[in-house]
C-alpha cells in the first residue's frame, strides 16, 4: 500500500470521518468540473467575439484615419470644435461587473452625451468634413472600448479556468487518492485487529477444551501413576513443577470450579476400597487433601478479615497453587 496517506490512528470513528471527507471531496470535484465546463463555454464565446471585434477595429480605425487625412487635405479648420470641448467631456466610460460561474468579469461601456454638440463647425472652413471626422472617431472609440472589454474578460476567464483546473487536478490526483489510501489503511488495520482477536479467542477456547479433556481423562482413570499420587498427597506449597513460576494464591471457590474435590475423593475412595490393601491409602490421601483445602480456606478467610484483598508483587512470589492445581497445569 502506498505511504501517501494521512497520519491518523486506525479506528472506526476515523474510518467514518474519512468516508465523509471522501464524499465531500467527490462532491466538490463534481462541482468544480461543472464550473470548469461553464467557464470554458463562456471563454469560447468571448474569444469568438474578440476575433470579430479585432476585424472591425481595423476597418473603423482605417476609416477614421483616412477621414482625418481628407480633412487635412481640404484645409478644414478644427479650432472651433476644439474650443467648444474645452469645458467638459462628452464621452464617458463606466465599468460594470458580471458574474460567470462565480467569477467576476468587468465590462466597459461607453456613453456619449450630445453627439451633435458642435453647431458652429459649419461656419469655418471644411465644416462638413470636420463633422465626418468627429463621427468616425467616435465610432473608433466605441469599438476600441469594446475590444478592451473583451480582451480583459478573456484574460480573466483564462486565469479562472487555469485556477479551476489546478483545483480539479489537486482533488482528483492528490487529495482523493490520499483519502482512499487512508481508508484502505484503516480497514486493513481493523481487519488485522479482528483476526488477532479471533485467533486469541480460538486459542483460549482450544486451551480450555484441552484442559477439560485431560482433566476428564484423569478422572476416568482408576489407577493413577505413583508420581501423580505422590503429587496429590503432598502438602508443601513451595514445591512447584519445573518450568512454572510461582503464582498468586487462588481461592478455594475458584479451585473447586476447576476441580470437584468431593467427587474426586469419592471416586478415589471407591477405587481404593475395591483394590486390595488400598483402603488405608485412600483414606490417608483423602484426609491429606481435605486438610490442604481446609488450611487454604482458613488462610484466605484470615486474609479477608484483615482487609487484604490483593497481594503485592513481592507477596505473589511467596504463594503458589496447591499441588493438585500444579498437576493440572503440568498436563496442559
From TrEMBL:
In this chain, composition skew of type Polar residues spans 265-275
Going by the UniProt record, its keywords in alphabetical order are: Coiled coil, Ion transport, Transport
Transmembrane ranges, per UniProt, are none
Matches recorded under Gene3D superfamilies: 1.10.287.3240
GO molecular function terms here? Answer: proton-transporting ATPase activity, rotational mechanism
A single Pfam family it belongs to is ATP-synt_D
Q: Which residues form a coiled coil?
A: 29-56
Q: Segment Disordered: which positions?
A: 265-332
Instruction: Report the family membership.
Output: Belongs to the V-ATPase D subunit family.
Database matches in NCBIfam families: V_ATPase_subD
Function noted in UniProt: Subunit of the V1 complex of vacuolar(H+)-ATPase (V-ATPase), a multisubunit enzyme composed of a peripheral complex (V1) that hydrolyzes ATP and a membrane integral complex (V0) that translocates protons. V-ATPase is responsible for acidifying and maintaining the pH of intracellular compartments and in some cell types, is targeted to the plasma membrane, where it is responsible for acidifying the extracellular environment.
What is this protein identified as? (Mediterranean fruit fly) hypothetical protein
Could you tell me which species this protein originates from?
A: Ceratitis capitata
